[in-house]
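Hi R.,

Here's the chain you asked about this morning:
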Amino acid sequence: MFRHVCIAQAQWRQRVPWKLTLAAALAVVLGHAGLLSAQLLALAELGTGGAHDFVIGTRAGMVWLMRAALGGLLLATAAALATARGGEGGHVACAALAAGYLTLAPWGGHAAAAEVPWQVLVPNVVHILAVAAWLGALPSWLLAARAYASQPDSALPTEALAGILTRFSRLAMVLMLVIVLSGVWLGTRYIENAGDLLGTRYGYLVLGKLGLLALALAFANRLRSRFLPALREAGEIADQRRRAGEAARQVTLELAAASGVLACAAWLAQTTPALHEPDPYWWLPFRWSLEATWAEPGLRPWITGGLLVMALGAAAALQGRRPGWRRPGAAGFVAGAGTLCWALAVPAYPSTYKRSQVPYLTVSVASGRALYGEHCAACHGAGGRGDGPAGANLPRPPADLSEPHTALHTAGDMYWWLTHGIPESGMPPLGDRLSDDERWDLINFLRAFSEGFQSRVVGPQTVPGQAWLGAINFYLHGVPGKAELKAYRETHNVLLAFLGGPQAQERAQVLAAGSAALRSRRTQVLAIPLGATELPANLPFPVLRPGAAELWAAYELLTRTVSDRGAPDRLGMAWSHAEFLIDRFGYVRARWIADERPEAGWAQLEHLYPELERLNAEPRLRPPPDDHVH
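And here is the predicted structure, written out as C-alpha cells:
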C-alpha cells in the first residue's frame, strides 16, 4: 500500500525489497506454526484430544488449515519472486495472500462464537487489515528515509521525499482512525466494566496494547510535527540528510512499539475475553459508580461541579491562541477530574466484579428464598424490612432489603459480604455455612426481591419504549421443542398465567378460547396452577405442573403493586391469580393482578390484543436480559 499510494514511480525507482518480503512471509509461517503449538499445548492441558482431533474436528482447526495453506502459498510466492526478482505484480500478489491470511483469523477465534457474529467479525477484519496496512508501511517509510539520508543527491530528491511522507502521514491518519474506532467497538464487545479492564489478563493486555499504541503515535506525531515541516523548508542538503537519519531512528522506535502492539494483539487472540472471565480480581479498595453515587443527594453538586470544572479546564488548555491559559486550564482539568473521582468512588472488594456461575432461574431464586428464611430473616426480618428481632443488638441496624440501595451494589459485593460478613455492622460470615452455589442462590433471591419493589409501577398496559424488568428464566418440563422460557425469544411473546382460586378454571377456559387469536399475534400462553388447583384437561397450551411452586415462589416477588407493598412480616403476597406479559426479547412489559383489579386488565382478552400488537411492532430496545446477575 505504501508503494502504490504514497510513492510516484517517476520519483523513486528503487527495486521492490524482495528479501524483506521473503523474511516477512517466513515470519508469518513460523508464527502460524508457533500459534498452533500454543493451542495444542492448551488443549493437552485440558485433555481434549490431540492435533488430529483439533485440526479435523473443530472449526478453529479448519480455519487453521486454510490459513496454513495461504501462509505456505505466500512463502512460496515470495521465495519464487525473490529468486526471479519479480515486479510490482508479484508484490501485489503477496499483499493479497497476506490479506487473505489475516482476514481468516477472526473466523477461528472468539469473534466467530459471538451471539451475533457479524457484529464482531466484520469490525475484527477491518481492524486487523488497518493495523496490517499501517504496520506494513513502516518498513517502507524507514527505507525511504534511509535511502534519502545515505544515497547520492540524485537518488531521491528532497521534494519527492517530502511528498511521499506527507501522503503517508495522511494515509496513516485515516488508518489510525479506523483502528481506533473498530478497536473501541470491539472493546465494548469483550469488556463489560472496569473490573474486566483492571482485573483480568485480557484487560491487562488491552491496556498494554493501548500504551504501546500511544507510544507509537507519540513517535509518529513527533515526525509529523517536526521532521516534515523541516524537510519542506529550504536548507543545506547535508543538514536535511542528517535530519532524515534522525527521522529513520524515530521510525525504528515507532516500528518497535507497533510490533509490541502486534504481539499484544496475538496474545489477546489466545486469551479468554474478559467478558467470559468468571472471577476478575479487583485490587482497589474502591470503584467508580455514577448510578450508586447519584442516588446520594449530597454528592450530586460535587459530581456536577467536577464535570463542569473539567470541561472548562479542557477548553482553556486547548485554547491555542492564548498560551497563558494552558497551565491554569490543565490544572483545572486535573482538579475537576480528581473531584469527580472522589465523588464517584464507592467501597469495593476483591470479588466486586465476580460473575455468578449460577443462572438467574426460578429454581435458584426459590432456593435463595428458603435460605433467606433460614439464615437472614432473624436480623433482616421475615419481610426483608430490616426489622428482625436479632438485629436490635447489632452495632448498626440491618439493611432494609426492600430499599433501592440493594440494586446499587454489584453481585460481587453481596458475594463478599455473604462470604466474609460485615464486621463493622455485626453481620456474620456465611462462607463456612453456605456453599458457593447457595450464596449465589441467595444473591439471585435478593435481586428478585429488590426488583419486586421497583416493579410496583408495572400495570396491565405496556409503556412504549420501556423494557427494563428481565423475566426470570425457568425450565419447561414436558414442553416439546422448548427447554426453557428464553427459547421463545425472538419469535414469541409469552403470557405467563398463574391460576388459582375459584376462578382458575373459568380463566383457563377464556385463555383456551382465545388461544388461536393469541397465536396469531405471536403470543404463547404458559399456565401454572397454584396450590391444589385443577385445570381443565386438553388445554391448547402448556400447563406447567412440575416445579409450579418454585415458579410462583420466584414470580410472586414481582407482584407488589403501588397500593399494596405486601405485609412486613412475610416475603410473598396473598394473590391467587397473576399474569405477566413477557415480550419476545425477554422483558416483563405488563402485569395484571386479577385479585386486586378483577374487572380491569385482561379479564376480556380484547383488552390484551392492542398491547400485543404494540409489542409486535416494537423493535429490540436493548439486549436480552443477562442469564446471570451482575
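One quick note: The domain at 362-455 is CATH 1.10.760.10 (Cytochrome Bc1 Complex; Chain D, domain 2).

Cheers,
M.
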